[in-house]
Design a protein that fits this description.
Blueprint: H1 3-6, H2 17-31, H3 41-62, H4 64-74, H5 89-107, H6 111-138, H7 145-172
Length: about 180
């Protein structure tokens, strides 16, 4: 049983937050181990497992990035073996510019270059988000779900890459002083 089935919700990149929260609280009351302390050991273990499942499912489905990864995993498009994901060559070429800026900032900090690099990164993130948002909203009801999943996977991998750049920018090129 996947997390969406556990909560009786449709598999989607956009979830009804109120329905998710309601299911989480309902199942929390139902499965919480403290309510089963007088039960058999086997029943207590089962309730603990279901309580853990409830918590894991809620953490995953309530976070848009985790939910996105989870939907991609459910569809076999991403998994643990994706340590070195394949990104489109044009995207990587675009990223060369910002990576060069990061190296320059690391060795010779300049506030205006830092601001430009940050703005470039934010613009890239916004363009990617704007491009994928219609796909996230329509999946799986309208369009070609298989093609949409590939678009979302592409977005997800690019977003993860940009997140690493953002972390590097703040870590190595943050204003000194």
């Amino acid at each position: 049983m996947n997390y969406f089935e556990f909560y009786d919700l449709p598999v989607s990149f956009q979830v009804d937050e109120a329905a998710l929260r309601q299911q989480y609280y309902r199942k929390s009351k139902l499965y919480h181990p403290d309510f089963h302390i007088l039960s058999t050991v086997n029943h207590q273990e089962e309730m603990l497992a279901l309580s853990t499942l409830n918590n894991d499912a809620y953490k995953t489905l309530s976070d848009p990035d985790r939910r996105m990864r989870y939907v991609l995993e459910l569809n076999g498009l991403i998994g643990e073996e994706d340590k070195q994901p394949q990104l489109p060559q044009d995207f990587l070429l675009d990223m060369m510019e910002i990576n060069e800026q990061l190296m320059e900032l690391e060795f010779d900090f300049n506030q205006s270059r830092y601001d430009r690099a940050l703005q470039y990164l934010e613009n890239m993130e916004n363009r990617l988000q704007d491009a994928v948002q219609p796909v996230l909203e329509r999946y799986p009801m309208v369009g070609d779900p298989a093609a949409d999943l590939l678009l979302v996977k592409d977005y997800y991998l690019k977003k993860r890459y940009l997140l690493r750049i953002r972390e590097n920018l703040s870590k190595f090129a943050a204003p000194k002083g």
